[in-house]
Amino acid sequence: MQKRYQIQFPPQQSHHLGQDEVSFLLTEDGQEKKIRFHDYDEIYLRPGLYEQVFYERLKCTSPERVGKILNDAVGEIGENLTELRVLDLGAGNGIMGEVLKRYGVARLVGADIIPQAKQAAYRDRPDVYDEYYVADFTDLNDEQLRDLDDWSINCLTSVAALGFGDIPCGAFFQALQLVRPGGWVAFNIKESFLDHEDNSGFSRLIRQLIFSKYLNLHHLEKYRHRLSMEGVPLYYFALVAQKKYEIPNDFLISHEIEG
């Protein structure tokens, strides 16, 4: 039976805080500990805590939603997820990987920057990933690049990990470069990313890519990602696109995208 944790959301308004600044209280052995939502190293050390906070209490729907629209988009052009060799970037403890595994993808490679994520994935979902890399995608060495390239990746997924500093633009772009032309990209991002007043590097990068010749947008859908601590719906966009051509390595620089 999965361990249950004593958690409490502080009686404060979190709407003025960034999603990466919000925290909850965890009581263990009589001691109260404050843990930020993005303190993944602390959360992943405790089996089931991530699921209890984000999926049970806050009703996160993103892995299922992104998995479904990817499956639908691929099927619409007569392809099948069983043909995909997926790189799951920001894989965490494997919740998105578990969804992809159910769809029967051919190969599934996880990647995250913190070792606690890999440890949690192998502990909680040991049969999901064919390989799992702990790596900084802004600074991959030659051996890591060769290893990843050998998987012949033709799909990139990233769920609940983009746009808050968890995965920098350069890391996402490097992962996208590993996808073969004709391959797929599926991810979610906060609802403001199409707003030109959002000048964050990641929002600018996505806008530039989806309006470029390099990606062919198949599906864009606004949906309820999860609830806030106060029970207010937080909306994201889920996006599925097909990579049409190799993207020049200087794309980030030429479009003055940072972050």
Describe the protein's architecture and organization.
- With 259 residues, this protein is of the alpha/beta class.
- The chain contains 9 helices and 10 strands.
- A 7-stranded mixed sheet has the order 6-5-4-7-8-10-9, with helices on both faces.
- It is globular and about 55 Å long.
- The model has no long low-confidence stretch (mean pLDDT 91).
Please outline what is shown here:
The protein contains 9 helices and 10 strands. The protein has helices at residues 40-44, 49-57, 62-76, 95-102, 115-124, 142-149, 169-177, 201-210, 251-254; strands at 6-8, 23-28, 31-36, 85-89, 107-112, 131-134, 155-158, 184-190, 215-227, 233-243. β4, α4 and β5 form a beta-alpha-beta unit.
